Known about the structure:
The complex is a heterodimer. By secondary structure, chain A is α/β, with parallel strands linked by helices. Chain A is built from six helices and eleven strands. The longest helix of chain A has 18 residues, at 178-195. Chain A is globular, with a radius of gyration of 18 Å. Residues 230-252 of chain A have low confidence and may be disordered. Chain B has helices spanning 2-10, 12-49, 74-82, 137-142, 180-189, 207-214, 221-224, 231-263, 265-274, 278-311, 325-347; strands at 54-58, 86-101, 104-112, 132-135, 151-154, 157-164, 169-170, 173-177, 198-203, 216-219. Chain B has a six-stranded mixed beta barrel.
Amino acid sequence: MITLDDVTLTFPDGASRVTAVDRVSFEGGAGQLTGITGPSGSGKSSLLAVAATLIRPDSGRVVIGDVDVTALSRDEATALRRERIGIVFQQSNLLPALTAREQLMVMAELGGRSTAGRRRRVRGRVDELLDAVGLADHAGKRPAQLSGGQRQRVAIARALVHEPQVLLVDEPTSALDQERGAAIMSLIAELTHDRATATLLVTHDLVHEQLLDALLTVVDGRIVGVREPASRDGGALSRPVPSSPCAGTTTT
Amino acid sequence: MFVAWRDLRFARGRFVLIGSVVALITLLVGFLAGLTGGLAAQNVSAVLALPGDRIVLQHPASGQASFSESAIAPSTVQAWRDAPGVDEVLPVGIVQGKAGLGDTTAAVALFGPPSGAAPSAVTDLAPGADDEIGLSAGAAKDLGGATVGDRVSILGGTYTVASVGGDAWYSHTPVIVLTPEAWAQVDQRMGGDGEATALAVTGDPDWDAIAERTDTVAQSPLLSLLALDAFKSEIGSLGLMIAMLFGISALVVGAFFTVWTMQRSGDVAVLKALGATTPSLVRDALGQASVVLVVGIGVGMLIVVGLGTLAGQALPFLLSPLTTLAPAAVMAVLGLAGAAVALRNVTKSDPLTALGSSR
């Protein structure tokens, strides 16, 4: 589970500061796919960056599992990303020198001195994940030998290979056509439910809205809309925390 | 090194290119070092072979002490012998001239050390009689392959070769050793006063005090080489070339890895975003640079050893750890220093940029 509690983030803008995330609160539970949408510059990616511990908010808390990540040092946050967070970037951001299999295996090496146990654990999951994203036959190919959709599938598998609690996905279909985009969205939804990750997905594309368990609409850094469709078991899957100042209408 | 090894494999063309550049620079450095060492040996090996803790030369009225201008009077020799802390004083006459055997003449350095001195490449050649000489291997070769028993003429005198052997050179001329008395006669025939030109002194006296009192200069054998007229300029210019090549090497390697890490800055940001620690990325980058340097320098040094072995038969080329391993180590250290400059791109890379947009 990931919880954002009254999170505010500002950036310097000349002599003043501009607010990118404005007192945002919500939580995403395990196995839930929460979409974050909004116009360009609305603060979606900033929200994702805060959730990914890549930037520390001015105020508020981000809690992953039972860890208040806003209280972590830079090194501790790096270790947390390595252990508990999976990130899928807008561009697949695969390393050009590595094959699809190696893109996943590199996750066992990020800490510098990889333990044999960690390496073995990751290796054991590589083939299973490549199979899960439909790329078992492409394990030996480098990014340049893969299509855009295949690259994004490798990126998704990479983000899941260390069994993260939280999966953060930044506009995964922006460089794909409708058909491939739909396949990627379905894959993310399926893996989120199967592997019980709390997934936050930033997207402009609401064509696949039905796959989302919840949808937050962000404008000018504030949550202005929350859609909470009925869950598969009938309960709300994502909801604003009671103290959230999110305003505006709830989209349907 | 997980990513580093795969980068090396993936971008092998680029790494082969920089490795080749490193190998070529190593070849240049190694060859220059070998030549410098060879030339230096032909310049100074006889001086370095003199058995003593310090070499004492006459203090000139102006300028620096010089082997060619120095003359040590017998009273000065005695003053050094009488000085407290001095164990042994070896007066040596050194002068350059010509020697002939049959139709062959050669420029030689004539040394006149006393017999019974501590063994060395020079003193081992000291003859037992005034009409005998000892030829260094180089002198024997330059005199057309002189052997023991041959009669060699030196400035109007004729001497029998009593021994041949040892490699001793002075100012690019091979050494011939005479008795002190024979050397004094030769020196006088050349217009000299027959006095020894240098002292090889052993002991632990107050060097400066005695030198000042006797109007001499006492320096370690290595520092005394600066009193050789050609040595300073010759080694200085060759050393400058080597130093410049070292600098070029560091710049080239640094520039390559700076461009390389700048090209990889996106990948570095992604790895950091995924959880890679900066120290692990730094180790990766330095490890990669080390591989390129070790391979490039290794190949370059192999070529140096191969060509140096061949060149040594025709050129004054010295193959030794000082002319191979030492420059290779300096190349490696400077190359790594150059690569370390590029690490700024790794340490300063912001993982936030991996998200593409933070707004």
